[in-house]
Design goal:
alpha/beta; Polyketide_Oxido-like; globular; 8-stranded mixed beta sheet; NAD(P)H-binding protein
Length: 207
């Protein structure tokens, strides 16, 4: 059985992912900076940037749920990925909780959602920082998968038990809605992580 480490697990997305792993009776450990807020019993209390090779050497799949919103910390969306890639075991997989703003508007992959008209100005710095992190991740020597949520990422939304996996192009349902709950995103992420597929690829998930 694969051993999972969820980094920055105290956040809302991290907690949902941990719940999903536990519900499937998978071997999960969490790495949190402060007191553990998750249901996991195996805990490493350490800042992401203080994790070492020794801390992560026994894990097959590391799920990165890190997020930073303060302007002075936005560059950590890149440096956190660099750090994790540097310390992972050679055959470990890095699965990243991503953002929707860097999804492309069409198959030409020239214009991102964050650069389109109507994208909220308040979210542009974060979306740009996460996009830069993804661009850096593509260059790192690590087995990675980056999973973007729908544009409307609903923290307390219901778990419907279904989702659609798309590629790097922003899509909507037949009503023009791009939405998914944290709970169904967590289900999709764990399905993808355990599938052994989508290596060195970015995908998006929505209802």
């Amino acid at each position: 059985m694969s051993k999972f480490l969820v980094v920055a697990a105290n956040g809302k997305a991290g907690q949902k992912i941990v719940n999903e792993l536990i519900a499937r009776d998978l071997d999960v450990t969490v790495a949190v900076r402060q007191a553990n807020k998750t249901q996991a019993s195996q805990v490493i209390i350490k800042d992401l940037f203080e994790l070492t090779v020794s801390d992560v050497k026994n894990f097959d799949i590391v799920i990165d749920a890190f997020g930073a919103w303060a302007p002075e910390a936005l560059q950590q969306h890149t440096t956190s990925l660099e750090h994790l890639a540097a310390i992972l075991a050679p055959n470990a997989r890095l699965v990243v909780v991503g953002g929707a703003g860097s999804l492309y508007l069409d198959a030409s992959h020239t214009v991102a959602l964050k650069d389109s008209s109507g994208f909220p100005d308040a979210f542009k710095p974060l979306a740009s920082a996460m996009g830069e992190g993804l661009a850096r991740l593509r260059t790192l020597d690590v087995d990675w998968t980056y999973i973007s949520p729908a544009a409307d990422f609903v923290a307390d939304g219901e778990r419907k038990g279904h989702y659609v996996i798309e590629g790097e192009v922003f899509t909507t349902d037949d009503k023009g809605v791009s939405q998914i709950s944290y709970a169904d995103y967590a289900m999709a992420l764990v399905d993808i992580a355990t599938s052994g597929r989508y290596q060195k690829e970015r995908h998006s998930v929505r209802w």
